[in-house]
Amino acid sequence: MRIKPLRPPPSLTIAPTWRELYEARSFAQRELVTDSTLRSAAKARDMSLGFGQEALEDLDQAGALRSVAFSLIGYWTGFTTPSVPSDELRFADESEARSWKEHRWEHDLEPGLPNVTALYSPWQLLHVDDVLDGTGADIALETLLLDDKERDQQLDALRGWAEHQDETWREPDASWTPLMKLLVGAQNRYWPDVSNRMSILPKPDGEGYVRAGPSPEETSARGLLGFLGCSEDEVLAAYHFLVERGLDRDPRDGLTLLRRARPRAFHLRWHGLPRRAQDNFDAAEMLRLFLVELTNEQPPRVEAWPLDGRQQERAALYDRGPSARWTRSEVKQELLVAELYPHGVHIIGEGPSEGLVVERLITHLLGPDALARLEFFDLGGSGAAKWVKPLAQAFDQYAIRALVIVDHEGQMAEYMNAAVQRGDIAAADLCLFDDSLEASNADVQELLDLARKVGNSLVDDPATIAFDLSAEELERVHADRRGRSSRGDRPGLADTMLREIRSRTNGALDIDKLDFVEALADFMIEELEAAGRADIEELKRRRPIIGFTIDRVAEAINRPRPAGSNP
To answer: pTM higher than 0.90, yes or no?
Structure first.
């Protein structure tokens, strides 16, 4: 036989009676609900409280789930606070449970037709599952199929457990009532912040509406604590209890934090355990806000840290709040952790060359499928420097990471350095070459050797495209050309080299710039393949584009990060 242990809430010292809470207008922001409403809400959470009032009456008289009160007149909400005069209510903590027949009343328009209006707090849904679990036990089929004597022996051996369970089952309401009163006492002040909804009432003169119940300014958190009669430590214990209870009910599917991030309107569509978990997290969030206002600091985590495989989820719930609102960046990080985020890395580059090199390197490092998570925006030259910052900030709203690869040409360096200093762009997300892409990732002789290799691949007879151009001569030609160019239109070293080669071969060797850049990427990939683990750091230093691609592009695409970590 399997019996689910019922864990009661921590002991709480709560002074007010239900009547005192009612007369203090504590139910203004979360009203009492009728038994039919409670049954419907329980059904949405996959908990059946039967049909009609009989099942709830049985639970009430057994002491497992007592109503908060019975109304002796029609209970209508939304017009005044309190909804009906308190002398028209009979509260559960003022007498022993009685037959519901004693709470009957008749409507003036329907004489002779008795009504029973049992009222509950929606917070009582928190322990309905305990009530229902306590009404039975699971007995294995193999036990039931034993012969009569052996089956009776096994069941007799379990009788003590069953009797204890029956006694425990009749205690939930008594053990839960102080926590219910704590939540009811706090709900006027904190429930609107948690639910993002506020109950309002029409003004007596009919001109507009006002917040139902006392305004937050009327009672301080310290005053509320004094009214309730409990201590900060008791509220903290209740907070820990509700967080752990919510986590215990939330499915172990890796989506616990993502469910918390969904807009509250979606919570109403949940059923079963996720909805029950959210009820507990909402209650815990109210107490967290209460504690924050009392102490001016985030409540500490629970001291006993269960090693149940949910430590990361538990830490996030305690550190940010079990039902606090999520920012866009927090949602993005959690989607990354769950490997559900559809966007990838977005790179802003000065031209197609940067995109080509990064794509070739990523294909080598992670495979061609990784390119689906890589987007590239071509600025079309250094003249678009002023657009880099707004583009990077816009892309960063949805991309895993927004990166910039540019060189010092024109006003680019000035704009980029200023953006980094202001914090508009993270320094780690900027790859700012001292020269052009080609000249910053290869020396002059390497570029010349690579040009000859590309040229040899384009013709049948290499002698027809031979050219005499040394590294020193190319540097002089390039310096002279740059000196005659305007600041915003200075050519890169590779451009000067290809132009000079074309001239010296009378146009016979006309190497396309992107073909050359592709060859440069292949050259760097060959170095990567040949480099040992100890040589990678040196290679990243000599070829900045390799280091940037490995550390900022591949790392973001290839490895989800824990929630809350820095991108």
So the answer is: no
